[in-house]
Structures are given as structure tokens and as C-alpha cells.
Amino acid sequence: MSSAAQEFLRAAAIKSVDLGHRQTIRRAIDHYEAAVEHTRGRFNDWEAARQRCHEIKWEALNHLGRYLVEFEGRVRARRGHVFWAETSEQAQQYITDLALRRGVRTVVKSKSMVTEEIHLRPGLERKGFKVFETDLGEFIVQLRNERPYHIMTPAMHLTRSEIADLFTEKLGGVDSDDPQGLVAVARRELRKAFFSAEMGVSGANFLVADSGMVALTTNEGNGRLGTSLPRIHVAVTGIEKVIPRIEDLAVLWPVVALSGTGQSLACYNTLIGGPRGPNETDGPEEFHVVLLDNGRSELLADAEQRDVLHCIRCGACLNACPVFRTIGGHTYATTYPGPIGSVLTPNLHAGGQFRHLPFASSLCGACTDVCPVKIDLHHHLLHNRRNIVGSAKGPMSEQIGFKLWRWAMLNSRRFAFLSLLARVALRVLYRLGLEGSMIDPMRPWTKVHAAPRIPGKSFRALWREQHGTS
Amino acid sequence: MKKVAMFIPCFVDQLTPEVGLDMARVLQRIGYDTEFPDAQTCCGQPGFNSGYWTDARPLAERFVHVFRSAEVVVCPSGSCTTMVRNFYPELLARTTLVGEAVSLGRRVFEFSEFLVKVAEVSDVGARFPHRVAYHDACHALRELHLKQEPRELLRHVREIEFVEMPYSEECCGFGGTFATKFSMISSAMGETKSGNAESSGAEYLTSTDPSCLLHLDGVLRRRRSRVLTIHLAGILAQTEGPGGPARLNPAPERS
């Protein structure tokens, strides 16, 4: 078992019994689900919208090379720079080198999961840059020195009063836990950062091939400030974010807003195609796009799981997942938590540490049901399990266990006889009150369940008594 | 008389035989001749779900052989039905049995699905004078798309008080080997489900899947809950008529 797997079990055990956590998350997700339910009514046909999004992403991924090159050409034609990063290290290094060369001191970031994936903030901080997260949720978790709890709602796990306490401790000037007051405190801090930063880093929700535009969605306007005030803008994103046409946004923007937050459209949807032009008054002097692979090409080569790259990072599968709601986002200890993370992470570079994640699911399928681009999430968990057992092998005891199971089940008399022995043994054990004890073979079950009632006769025995053999 | 073959999941055979007997009783009552092909063992789902597809495959092949001559197969578990209908085509994809597996999948029905969609019976003549909540088992709901069928059957039971519990579509946390590998998460999910069942004021929690109920029964009794579990077949089997008086105790024998 990897150390990440052991850490996962430890953290999951703590969070599973944390009723306060469970209640906070339930409240947040109830609120989200009510909003989604309400807004979905504004679609004439939600299923058709999902299908359309699925097809757009399918088309893009099946011609990924062509659309990426088209995007690159258009960005370069507007004096933008495009850097192809094969690994996270390369992506991080490109950005830190650029910041060093240009004499940057302060960097403002808008929310981006890819910057988490390449560990950009710690990388920049190690080189002495001051980095500010400008998305309110990200700003909060940065103050707490935590990773984002959720890919869409980074501070979902915190209550208003916890945030007020945090601001009081770290920033001062907090007079109540009223949301507007708290936002004002954050704004006061962030305005200073926006005006002093020489570099703004953003992610990208979509890369539009036919117009060479980066599509960026935020709800706080921080994305616009951070990409227009500093003299350098760097957009970092995965290669799978490209879409063929600008018209595709007509369905993708409302769908991502609905699935992400229950909105019919996010507050700020911006298209950025290059640095400030000769006759323009606003915008950065330099514009860079970093396109990250980091294992995505290998996933693209896997015809079975290729659709994982359809993901638009809306977070709907996290909200729908009863495991996520029970153990929380931090327990996963991955960039992408929840169902999409459990599917994606073992397939990314250095994913070997996270082979336990596809198994940490009850396979309920709620994720697949809500996915707006129709990724077959819970079936991919099954595929990942098969791949992991096939390549890395499970524990020896489990391998032997399943061999024995197969042997027993290949003959009905053998199965009936061995089950009878097991039932007799368990009945004796449980009559002696030894359920859950060290000699109870059902201990993994009985340590959290009342012992099952073991019947004296099996169905097949009872049936034979009533009907004779068939 | 119309004939159906019963697919009794291995753990029902060994741990909850009353579920199989109750299903047979209901099927017979509405005019079906039930047979139990006793060469059957396990459909292979535990190995399949755990990643051991090479160990599960021979069991799937065996299952196809055992049931190949059956015209219609009925199973008291949405999960095991899903295994055959939805997953055999993938598991047996590169074998010579794939065609037969696909065709068998179309002839295997979950119990409530069979009653409502195939036999077209919603009222099986049952009486159950209790307050009952229904838990949507994941495979029945999301793989077989059965939402209304069990509810329709419950609404036709005499003297029943059927209530919707909050979050009825949320997973109970069983998930096969997940329940033992990640027992802390599984039992926490079971606790959440139990709390929701209790808040509905139900005396009985029912479902189409005996595996969910086995898990929930263990969690409910552990927390000394007043809510009892009973399989849908257990409710539908109870009548006032010649079938005998209502059996309040869902298990025929307790040790």
C-alpha cells in the first residue's frame, strides 16, 4: 500500500465521523442543488444540451492536433506566445523563468486547477515572488495554507464565522461576519495586489480554435482585472480545453455555469486573444499561453477512457458524490478530488501513488448522471480497477481470495457445501457472542455492522425440500 | 402456465433465503410457474467490480450456460440483474459467448421491473399495514432506470402507508468490497441513509436490492434504530388470504 493510500485511509476515518463537516457540506450542496434544479428549467431540453456538449468535446478531442495548431497559429498572429509543456515541471519553469527575466515581483492569480496541478504558487514563492490568489475562495484557502477543497468552490468546507475569524487573525479590520463586510475586507487586500502586480496568471475554461481566443469565466471579475492590469498575462491550461468554434460557447457557457454553480450564466465571461494592440488602451504588453500535456496524450491514446478529457471542470460530479460529501475534498490529497479526480489522477503523470482512489467508490453512478459532457465516470472507475489489478496486482491475500472464490463458484455443489460450512461456523461463533472479535472471519464487516443473522438453511436447501430437485 | 427461471443471487441463497421464497410466492400468485436452476452460483460481480475480470469471466460464461435455455429470468436484485444485462457484454466482449450474453441480458429482469413491465401487474394482492419508506438502490435506479416500478407496486399494497424518505436516491454506501475496504466511509454513508429513513417516520425501509438492505440492516441494528429492513418481495408476499396471515418478521428464522 502506498503512503498516499495509508494517508487517505487515515484522513477518511477522521472525516467520516465528523458530523459538523458533513452538515456544512450538506447545507452547501443542498443550496447548490436547489439552484441547479431551478435554472435547469430554463433549458428547453437539458439532455439535448448535454449531448451537444458531449459532441463538441468529442469532435475537438478526435481532431485535437489540428485544433490546437489552429489555435496556436491565431494567437501567434496577434503577437501572443504559445508554449507547449509536456510535464508540470516544464510548465512551472517556463513561467518562473519568464517572471525572472521580466523583473516581476508580484503575481496575481485567478482560479485555475491547472496551476494547482503544476504547483505554480509554491514554485513561484520558492523563487521569491509574492503570489496572490484573487478568487475569493482561493484567497481564503491560501490564507489557511490549504489546497482548494473543491475545484469550483475552494472554500466550501468553511462557515462564514470561520472565515470571519480567519480574516480577523490574518488581515484585521473585520467588524462582523456579514458576507458583504467580509468581501470588502478581501477586496481591500486584493486591490493592492492587483495594482502592484506585474504578472497575472489565469487558467482557461476553453481555448477557441477558430478565433484563437482564451475563454475565461469568473463570478467576481477578478479574472478581468488580473489579465488586464499587469503588464504580462500568462494563461495556463490543459491541451484538452480546445473547442472548434466560437459558436460552441453558446451552449458550453450556460452549461458550465449551470453545472458549476446553478447559474444560467456566470457573471463575467471574457475572451482574450492577445496582448494590447497598437491602437488599444487596455490589456497586457505580453500574452503567453502555456499548454500542458502532463499525461493527457497517453489518456487520449486510450480509446476506452478518452472521454475523461471531455471534462470542463464544473465540479458537478463532486457535489453529486456521496463519498465526496462524506470524506471531503482534502482527503483525496489530489489536485482534482471526487469522481473525476479518482478517474483522472491514476492516469496522470506520477499517478501511481493514487491507485487506491478508483476503489474508494461505491460505484453508485450519481456522478455519471450529472456530468454535463456525459463522461462515463463510474464505469471508468471499473476500467481503472481492472487496469490496476492487471498491471500492479492487488494484495496477495486478495489475489488468492478471488482465485478461491472462482474455484468455489465454478461448481454449485462445492459452493453449497463450502457455504454450509461457513454458515455453521458463523452461527456457532455468533451464538458465543464472538462477532467482531479477532477470530471472526467477517470482522471487516462486523466491526461496523451488527452481525448478520445467519440462516440455518440456504435457499437452495429450502427449495429442494419444497419442490425436490429440478 | 407461463414459466420463469429464478436467478437467486449467491448471497441471497446463503444469507437471506426468505427473499427468494417471497419472490417465488408472488410470482406463483400472479400465475407464473417458477423454476430454480440449481446449477447456478454467482454471476461474477464481486470479482468484476474489484478489478479481477479474469476470475469473473469464467463465472459469467458459466451463468450464460446455466440460463441459456430459460425464456425469462427474474432476479430479486437490481445489482445482479445489472451485472448480466449491462456488464456481461463488456466482460465477455472477446469471447464466443458475447452474442448469447447480450440476448440473455434482454431476458433477465429485476423483480419489480418484471412485475410492472413484463407481467403488467401492479396489484399483486398484498396487504402490509405499516409505514414504509423506499430506498432507491443505485443499480436499479441508474443502470436499469427503475424509479416508478417499485413505487407503483408499493402504492397498490393494501393498508400500506408509503412515504418518500429524504434523499431516497442517495447511495447507502454498500458498494460490494468497498464496504470492507473502506468500511469507515461505507458505514458513515449507511448512517446518513439510516438517519434519513428514521426522519421519514417509517417502520420499514424497503428496496429492490438485498445487498443494500443487508448493509443497512447491520447499520440500523448497530445504532439500535427502530427502523426495520424488508425486501420489496417480503412486502408483496404478505396477504390476508390463503397465503397465510401477514408475517411481520421478515426473516423466517433467527438465530
Keywords for this entry:
A: 470 residues; alpha/beta; Fumarate Reductase Iron-sulfur Protein, Chain B, domain 2; Rossmann fold; 3 domains; 6-stranded parallel beta sheet; 22 helices; elongated; B: 255 residues; 4-stranded parallel beta sheet
Account of the protein in words:
The complex is a heterodimer of chains A (470) and B (255). Chain A has 3 domains: 1-41 and 310-394, Fumarate Reductase Iron-sulfur Protein, Chain B, domain 2 (Orthogonal Bundle); 42-294, 3-Layer(aba) Sandwich (Rossmann fold), CATH 3.40.50.10420; 404-467, no CATH class. Chain A is 51% helix and 10% strand. Chain A has 22 helices and 10 strands. Chain A has helices at residues 3-16, 19-40, 46-62, 64-77, 88-101, 113-117, 120-126, 136-143, 160-170, 179-196, 222-228, 249-261, 296-301, 316-320, 322-327, 338-344, 366-370, 377-391, 396-409, 412-431, 443-446, 459-467; strands at residues 81-85, 106-109, 130-133, 199-202, 206-208, 213-218, 232-238, 242-243, 268-272, 286-292. A 6-stranded parallel sheet of chain A has the order 1-10-7-4-2-3, with helices on both faces. In chain A, helix 9 packs across helix 10 and helix 16 (338-344) packs parallel to helix 18 (377-391). Chain A is elongated and about 95 Å long. The mean pLDDT of chain A is 96. Chain B has 255 residues and is an alpha/beta fold. Chain B has 2 domains: 2-118, Rossmann fold (3-Layer(aba) Sandwich); 131-236, Rossmann fold (3-Layer(aba) Sandwich). Helices cover 49% and strands 12% of the residues of chain B. Chain B is built from 13 helices and 8 strands. Chain B has helices spanning 10-15, 17-29, 45-49, 53-67, 78-91, 98-107, 111-118, 138-143, 148-155, 178-181, 183-199, 210-222, 232-236; strands spanning 2-6, 32-35, 73-75, 108-110, 131-134, 161-163, 204-207, 228-231. A 4-stranded parallel sheet of chain B has the order 2-1-3-4, with helices on both faces. A 4-stranded parallel sheet of chain B has the order 6-5-7-8, with helices on both faces. Chain B is globular and about 50 Å long. The model of chain B is unreliable at 243-255 (pLDDT under 50). Chains A and B meet through helix 1, helix 15, helix 17, helix 18 and helix 19 of A and helix 1, helix 2, helix 3, helix 4 and helix 8 of B.
